[in-house]
Amino acid sequence: MAIRVQQQPFDLGAEVSRFAGARHDAGAVVTFTGLVRDDGGLDRMQIEHYPGMTERALQQIEGEARARWQLRDALIIHRFGDLRPGEAIMMVATAAAHRAAAFEAAEFLMDYLKSRAPFWKKEFGADGAAWVASKDADEQALGRWASPEDQN
């Protein structure tokens, strides 16, 4: 397990090689990388977080993913600071005995990072600056992972 919250860019190829190369007990490794998307006029995105609190929240959700899907390993990298369009914001990697578990766990982690992880995003462009609001679609995606106890 590794969780990193960092300002500096990461080398996707090196991270995947290191993660997958250490796994001789897994039949599947799934990775996902989120990028800063420019829907028109975005100069930069600023991502803020509270050190300590953020890492604890990511460790908790990573532990939940491990328990649900019996992962062999997981990696979460999330950046903060000023990022430009095309730059990597985050990466998730999961390793499991079988592909279904690796894919589902990666999707679960990505949905959590998009909707619940304690990061705050502000976009800066030609029209000024605005905080990024949560989207209903992101909440709905996260809802598919709710346990029966969460729905009561």
Strands, helices and their partners?
Layout: E1 2-6, H1 12-21, E2 28-35, E3 42-49, H2 53-69, E4 73-79, E5 81-83, E6 88-96, H3 99-115, E7 119-125, E8 128-131, H4 136-143
Parallel strand pairs: 1-4
Antiparallel strand pairs: 2-6, 3-5, 3-7, 4-6, 7-8
Helix pairs in contact: 2-3, 3-4
User: Strand arrangement, largest sheet?
Assistant: 1-4-6-2
Question: Unreliable stretches, pLDDT < 50, 5 or more residues?
Answer: none
Proportion in β-strands: 25-35%
CATH overall fold name: Aldehyde Oxidoreductase, domain 3
Helix-and-strand structural type: alpha+beta
Q: Largest sheet at a glance?
A: 4 strands, mixed
Separate helix tally: 4
- Rounded to an integer in angstroms, the radius of gyration calculated over CA atoms is 16 Å
User: Alpha-carbon distance between the termini?
Assistant: 31 Å
Let me know the average pLDDT: 91
Q: Helical residue percent?
A: 25-40%
How many domains, as an integer?
Answer: 1
Looking at the overall shape, the CATH architecture is Alpha-Beta Complex
Shape: globular
What is the β-strand count? 8
- CATH level 4 superfamily: Molybdopterin biosynthesis MoaE subunit
For the record, the CATH class is: Alpha Beta
Order of helices and strands: EHEEHEEEHEEH
